[in-house]
Design brief:
CATH superfamily: NAD(P)-binding Rossmann-like Domain
Oligomer: single chain
Structural class: mainly alpha
Order of helices and strands: HEHHHE
Radius of gyration: 16 Å
Distance between the termini: 13 Å
Length: 112
């Protein structure tokens, strides 16, 4: 969700994610004549090595982790498989009416 909400000290990261979202929207328009759908997934905080590496620079990383979890409506980080299921759906025929969408998988983070 780095392209949907702002985070301190992450301007370049956020700009790159917002650019990818706009690229997906533009490509959906460009490729519609060929019957090609383009969507983007905007994962939030997913329990992968990335957030753990980010927190290594802080002494109170456990406290920060807990606060980050509570910032989500779900009260936790996401799991990789929760993102994968959305990608599988978007690649399927069941998502044939979904095109040009940027879908957040963020445990409700972008809603608060």
């Amino acid at each position: 969700v780095g392209g949907l909400v702002g985070f301190p000290d992450m301007a370049a990261y956020g700009a790159s994610k917002a650019g990818l979202a706009q690229l997906a929207r533009s490509m959906a328009n460009d490729l519609k004549a060929h019957g090609i759908r383009v969507n983007a997934v905007a994962p939030g905080a997913i329990d992968t090595p990335m957030p753990h590496r980010y927190l290594e620079k802080f002494e109170n990383k456990d406290e920060i982790w807990a606060a980050m979890e509570q910032a989500h409506l779900t009260g936790r980080f996401g799991r990789p498989e929760e993102v994968i299921w959305l990608v599988i759906f978007l690649a399927s025929d069941e998502a044939s009416f979904t095109n040009g969408a940027v879908i957040a998988v963020d445990g409700g983070y972008s809603a608060v």
